[in-house]
What does this fold into?
Amino acid sequence: MQTKTNLKYSKMKTAIQIVLIAIAILLGYLIFNSVKRPIEFEKAKKERYEKVVERLKDIRKAELAYKDVHGEFTGSWDTLIDFVKTGELPLVKKIGMLTDSMVALGWTEETAIKKGAIIRDTIFISVQDTLYGKTFNAENLKVVPGTDPVAEFHLGATIITTGSGIQVPIFEAKVHNNTVLDGLDRQLVINLNDKARTNEKYPGLKVGSLTEANNNAGNWE
It folds into this structure.
């Protein structure tokens, strides 16, 4: 009788040990996964953010060049892309400079130009070749890198009036985290968005602003 009792106790003890080992393994996995998940998320987020930021910088270059030529920004992708493809930028070609002897004669640069002593000639150069290079695909400006199906940045432009009554052209290009981080850990994306909203920040990446003149800054800068 004692032998059977001992055997039963031994089996129960073994079963308990197996359960405890299983629980320890499960806890270890959960702890490991809880650490691994955010690390992998941050790595993937960083890689995607870097590509999107580079594209936003390209958009900013195009918008600033457009404003130099037209005096305002554009909120139209068709207009901006066509400008990059076919637009031209003025470039002043300078030959000669105002010398001390010219200044002694009372000449200004304008006088020297009229007399032909120095030359200031305006030529026009391709927007695409100047800003991006001949192989650049302007159509990609509107595309959020790495998205499948392909997503586009939201683009807008307007003119605001400052408190001093000055009208200032502004633009904004942006993309939400839900688009940039699509396919990554959903809960961690939600947490990231909630943190941004709590801090009254845009939950994604953007350059410029449609509510204030922020010197065309990106929210990653």
Q: What stands out?
A: The mean pLDDT is 88. The chain has two domains: 2-83+136-208, 84-131. The helical segments are 2-70, 77-86, 100-104, 109-114, 127-131, 177-180, 186-198. The radius of gyration is 31 Å.
